[in-house]
Each structure stands twice: as structure tokens, then as C-alpha cells.
Write a structure and sequence with these properties.
Elements: E1 35-43, H1 56-69, E2 78-80, H2 87-99, E3 106-108, H3 111-114, H4 121-134, E4 137-138, E5 154-155, E6 160-161, E7 166-172, E8 177-184
Parallel strand pairs: 2-3, 2-7, 3-5
Antiparallel strand pairs: 1-8, 4-6, 7-8
């Protein structure tokens, strides 16, 4: 139950995903599914398994990704967060997104659908988010029904139509490693 008031941990899943990253769009019959705009990593070195309570590593990663993409936070139309469902991770992301001025961008996590797929999570979730945006849809965070404890962010409790195409995908890992990527779907 990512970003839900009753969240209390994660469930694990299994998956594999792959993409072709190239500058040569002619390799694709129907064109690329997304365009890379920018990305970055930030490490807060807070704890082997617990994120920084201030969201510092994630803030640094998102700020650097926005700089590389030459975008302001207001350009982001959707955030697909790491969203493990743990109090500390969801709380850290809430603080980081608030600090970054991303309260306008609807936020979701897909771990409620297929669990935390560990090393495959970031790529798998990016692909699902891009395909949903290309269909004009932002998917709800499965299991999230109330997010009163996370004021200032727009958690998707229901599927929502969108014309937005700028995706911010975040991932957070062990040892304080945080990654952010911006894609145009």
C-alpha cells in the first residue's frame, strides 16, 4: 500500500525488463517509446537500508536530472516514485517531492501491482509509466486509499486521464543511493 496512511512495509516480486537505448531512431519501425531528457544519481550515505529522513540524496538526484534536462520542476507532469510502502521510504519521498516543488505533479508507485522487483524495479516501472502516459493515463497506486499523512503531494488513488508526457521516475536503493530520470513519453 504505497503512499497510504496504513502503509507498513513492502512485498517482493520478480521481473525482468530490457530496453534499447540509442540515438538512431531509424532502428524502430514505429519510433521510440520515449525520449531521454535527463538523469542523475545522488547518494546520502545515510544507512545501509534506511533512507535519509530529509530526502537529501533524492533531492540532489532530481535537481541534477532537471538541470541536465533544462527543465523546471513545473514541467514535470507525472511522478512515478520508488514507493516501497514503508513508512521511512514513502516519508522520505514525500519530503523530497515537497522540497522540490513537485506538489502539482500526480504521484504513484506500481509496487502494489507486482511487488518490489529489486534490480528490475526502476526499468520495469519506467516502461509501465511511459506506456500509460502514451495512452493518456496515469495509473493509481494500488492499495492507496488515503494519504492524509503525506500533505502537499497528489497521490493517485484512482486512475486519471492526462495529456501530460513528462515523466519523472525515481528509485532509491540500499546505502542511500537515489536515482532520477526524466522521460518524454
Amino acid at each position: 500500500m504505497q503512499f497510504d496512511d496504513a502503509r507498513d512495509g513492502i512485498s517482493l516480486g520478480e521481473a525482468a525488463a530490457s530496453v534499447v537505448v540509442t540515438r538512431d531512431a531509424s532502428l524502430f519501425r514505429h519510433g521510440p517509446i520515449a525520449t531521454y531528457l535527463g538523469g542523475a544519481m545522488g547518494n546520502d550515505a545515510n544507512h545501509i537500508s534506511g533512507p535519509s529522513r530529509t530526502g537529501e540524496g533524492l533531492v540532489r538526484a532530481v535537481e541534477a536530472a532537471l538541470r541536465e534536462a533544462a527543465l523546471a520542476p513545473q514541467a514535470v507532469t507525472h511522478v512515478n516514485a520508488h514507493g516501497t510502502g514503508s513508512v521511512y521510504n514513502d516519508g522520505m519521498e514525500h519530503i523530497a517531492f515537497t522540497r522540490l516543488g513537485l506538489g502539482h505533479a500526480p504521484v504513484n508507485s506500481y509496487k502494489g501491482y507486482f511487488g518490489h522487483t529489486l534490480g528490475a524495479a526502476g526499468l520495469l516501472e519506467s516502461l509501465v509509466a511511459v506506456h500509460a502516459l502514451r495512452q493518456g493515463l496515469m495509473l493509481r497506486s494500488l492499495g492507496a486509499t488515503g494519504s492524509a499523512t503525506l500533505p502537499g503531494i497528489d497521490v493517485l488513488h484512482e486512475h486519471r486521464p492526462t495529456t501530460g508526457r513528462i515523466l519523472l521516475k525515481t528509485s532509491s536503493g540500499f546505502g542511500g543511493c537515489n536515482a532520477a530520470i526524466l522521460l518524454h513519453a
